[in-house]
Write a sequence for this structure.
């Protein structure tokens, strides 16, 4: 009898419930739970909260608001930005209240006052991971309770597998009735350990919190907003600027900086300080003098006057072995070189080079702050915390097992020549055609597929760079092609990923959209209007002359044309783009506004209904967005491996299953057993990505055409 192992990225109540029951409840609840979830923007950063009364009372985390009587803004799900004031804070439980200072009614959710939850219950977490992204609603995540605490968010919390991360702090944890039972508070490095403030502990001090009282001290010191979000390395910069003035005269690079100053990152500042004013007690590390890039260890640069520069190494060499042992991956080689000592490097051109490193000051670690996001408190789980996996009832596992069995001959593991499982592949044609994640296998030699315990050689037929999908072929009979479901799944829909004896279960967390590359997904900011018209203006004049109109935008729907000049907004004359933007900031999505246009010699009046700014990739790189993405990736990777390529996709489904990179290439399946997407990346703690079948037919047709041409 096979043992079915479950890796659940969420899960639910212990009373008898089938996957279809849960799916129906989640899809019905999701819109209302998202509507009541807010982003709290304070001191340049943001956290989350939940509205619990029609008058605008919000429950959040104490480490978000920090103190009573602070002024902030609250971003509602409909795009409105409203003023708010923090009420009481309780740092002993990490619970807090605030009040929206605007007339209601507001969308809200009820909350429990006593413990109505228990271990194994399914729960739903919402919030704004990474901060509120323009046009993206608060993502939903599903999980199960492993500890049902009542007293605070630290030592007696509600602990769940509903993944939360920085920016989610203060967001709600719901039961399957849609009631708030907890508030997102802190996490362990493990993806499975997420802690929430129990509502009973907040209710116990409700009157005092309403009255604005404060209890306890923050879990960790609060930095000034300027230091936390804008310049976290101010002291290092002061040291560098002082040293620059003293040492630049004898240093050409330093003199160039004096003549043409520019903002340096902390690593470059520290590099200059190590050169000019080295710390004799600083830790040392071995330096061989070459840099590597790519999956295979290819030398891309050689440092002058280093051991590598004095050897026979050349730029472009690929290192195939160290001390006689093959190391085909750059990461494996880096771990060996980090230990130091004399090494013997075998190159792809057959040359063997001996290198002895020199000792240099070790590169200092400068963790990136979460730009514009309230950081999630991280509390590591105690050593030896091996709490058992919670197992859903047989009525649930039985139905999922049926789905898993359907795919036993449709999912194939791909391995390297050393026998390591790299990724999975999904069968799309009985003649042995499969699709998989391209970047995990592109440079692998002796790639093989394992079918019924036998290994078969794999041929890569074609690769689509945009989606990171590869069409491959294996000469095996008896494979079963999967069936597509072209309809895109809804937010909250329950989906599974079958793979051998493992089954992952999760939900669609948000509407499908593109996955921009690092630093290109921009957070909502109060500096830009939340209300969206859908036009861009000519750069050749300061007047609001329309240059482009986005298809499907309010401007497009109402008939605004390229070349129109906006001369009045709600009866107020406007002569510059800046003046128009200022008027727009006072408007919210859903409002109908009157705009007067000059079209040639005519004046035309239109009344568009403003929309929410869509979640599209930014057209330019943003440094703070890059800092945020780097920090979130760093925090996510503490709980498990992330995919090497995990962003820069044209259109993907976002879900919360706890994928590993090995499980990319597997099908994402609905409860009818039909494929809605191909898993393409484990992106972050709270986020896995899949290429939707909606786009797969086109991609596969393109890959097959390229394969025939080659």
């Amino acid at each position: 009898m096979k043992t079915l192992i479950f890796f659940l990225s969420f899960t639910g109540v212990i009373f008898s419930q089938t996957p279809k029951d849960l799916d129906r409840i989640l899809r019905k609840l999701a819109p209302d739970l998202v509507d009541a979830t807010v982003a709290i923007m304070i001191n340049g950063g943001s956290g989350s909260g939940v509205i619990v009364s029609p008058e605008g009372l919000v429950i959040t985390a104490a480490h978000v608001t920090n103190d009573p009587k602070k002024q902030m803004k609250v971003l509602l799900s409909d795009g409105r930005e409203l003023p708010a004031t923090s009420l009481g804070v309780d740092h002993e439980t990490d619970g807090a209240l605030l009040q929206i200072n605007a007339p209601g009614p507001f969308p809200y959710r009820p909350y429990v006052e006593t413990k109505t939850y228990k271990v194994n219950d399914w729960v739903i977490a919402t919030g704004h991971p990474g901060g509120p992204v323009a046009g993206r609603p608060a993502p939903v995540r599903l999980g199960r309770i492993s500890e049902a605490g009542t007293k605070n968010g630290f030592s007696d919390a509600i602990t769940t597998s509903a993944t939360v991360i920085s920016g989610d702090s203060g967001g709600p944890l719901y039961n399957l009735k849609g009631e708030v039972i907890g508030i997102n508070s802190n996490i362990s490095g493990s993806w499975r350990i997420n802690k929430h403030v129990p509502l009973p502990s907040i209710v116990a001090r409700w009157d005092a919190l309403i009255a604005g009282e404060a209890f306890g001290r923050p879990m960790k010191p609060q930095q000034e907003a300027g230091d936390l979000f804008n310049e976290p390395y101010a002291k290092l910069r002061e040291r560098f600027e002082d040293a620059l003035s003293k040492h630049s005269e004898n240093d050409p690079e330093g003199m160039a900086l004096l003549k043409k100053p520019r903002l340096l990152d902390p690593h470059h500042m520290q590099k200059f300080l190590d050169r000019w004013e080295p710390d004799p007690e600083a830790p040392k590390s071995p330096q061989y003098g070459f840099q590597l890039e790519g999956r295979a260890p290819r030398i891309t640069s050689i440092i002058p006057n280093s051991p590598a520069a004095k050897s026979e190494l050349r730029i472009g060499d690929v290192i195939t072995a160290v001390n006689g042992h093959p190391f085909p991956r750059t990461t494996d080689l880096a771990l060996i070189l980090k230990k130091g000592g004399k090494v013997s490097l075998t190159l792809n051109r057959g040359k063997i080079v001996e290198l002895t490193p020199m000792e240099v000051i070790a590169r200092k670690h400068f963790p990136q702050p979460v730009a514009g996001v309230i950081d999630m408190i991280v509390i590591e789980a105690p050593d030896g915390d091996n709490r058992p996996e919670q197992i859903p009832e047989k009525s649930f596992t039985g139905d999922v097992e049926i789905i898993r069995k359907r795919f036993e001959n449709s999912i194939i593991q791909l391995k390297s020549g050393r026998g390591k499982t790299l990724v999975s592949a999904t069968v799309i044609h009985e003649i042995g055609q499969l699709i998989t994640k391209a970047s995990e296998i592109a440079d692998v030699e002796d790639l093989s597929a394992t079918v019924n315990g036998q290994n078969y050689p794999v041929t890569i037929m074609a690769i689509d760079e945009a989606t990171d999908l590869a069409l491959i072929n294996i000469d095996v009979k008896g494979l079963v092609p999967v069936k597509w479901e072209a309809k895109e799944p809804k937010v909250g829909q329950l989906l599974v990923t079958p793979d051998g004896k493992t089954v992952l279960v999760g939900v669609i967390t948000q509407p499908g959209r593109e996955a921009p590359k690092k630093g290109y997904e921009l957070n909502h900011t109060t500096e830009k209007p939340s209300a969206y018209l859908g036009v861009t203006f000519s750069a050749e004049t300061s007047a609001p002359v329309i240059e482009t109109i986005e298809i499907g935008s309010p401007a497009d729907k109402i008939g605004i044309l390229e070349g129109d000049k906006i001369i009045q907004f709600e009866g107020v004359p406007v002569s510059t783009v800046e003046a128009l933007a200022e008027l727009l900031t006072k408007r919210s999505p859903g409002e109908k506004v009157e705009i007067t246009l000059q079209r040639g010699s005519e004046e035309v009046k239109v009344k568009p209904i403003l929309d929410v700014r869509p979640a599209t990739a930014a057209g330019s790189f943003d440094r703070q967005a890059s800092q945020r993405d780097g920090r979130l990736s760093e925090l996510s990777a503490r709980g498990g491996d992330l995919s090497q390529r995990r962003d820069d996709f044209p259109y993907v489904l976002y879900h919360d299953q706890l994928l590993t990179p090995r499980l990319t290439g597997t099908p994402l399946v609905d409860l009818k057993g039909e494929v809605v997407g191909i898993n393409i990346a484990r992106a972050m703690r709270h986020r896995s990505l899949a290429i939707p079948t909606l786009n797969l037919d086109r991609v596969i047709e393109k890959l097959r055409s390229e394969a025939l041409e080659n």
About this structure: The chain has 14 helices and 44 strands. Confidence is low (pLDDT under 50) at residues 1-16, 221-231. The longest strand covers residues 502-515.
